[in-house]
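Let us work through a complete example step by step.
Step 1: write down the sequence.
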Amino acid sequence: MPNRVLKDSINESEGLSECSIFADDLYKRLINYADDYGRFNSDTTIMRARLYPRELEYVSEEDIINGLIELTGVGKLQFYTPQVFNQGGKKGVYGAFPNWSEHQRIRDSKKKCPDPADTSINDWY
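Step 2: predict the structure and record it as tokens.
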């Protein structure tokens, strides 16, 4: 996984200022969790283990879900169901940073998450 750049302007984000401190922290950790295309598997069990490995007794899956909902509500994240990915297809819900290419370099690497087919899940969030 490549290193990510956090611009100092992230601290002045209007959207993040409307969120809880936890959601703000979650957002910054998600930047490192995402693939080179700004996408990530949104399985909250996996997210909790990878994003908060030393804080498992303090951070619950419900905390993660609530943080994701907050971040989606202020337009910082989007969720989608995938197009068919290879022959077997990958199912589930994936997350993405809507403005990833404005803040991170997109490398010509293999995608770890499938392309979006349907973003109607955002209405649920």
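Step 3: interpret the result. The mean pLDDT is 80.
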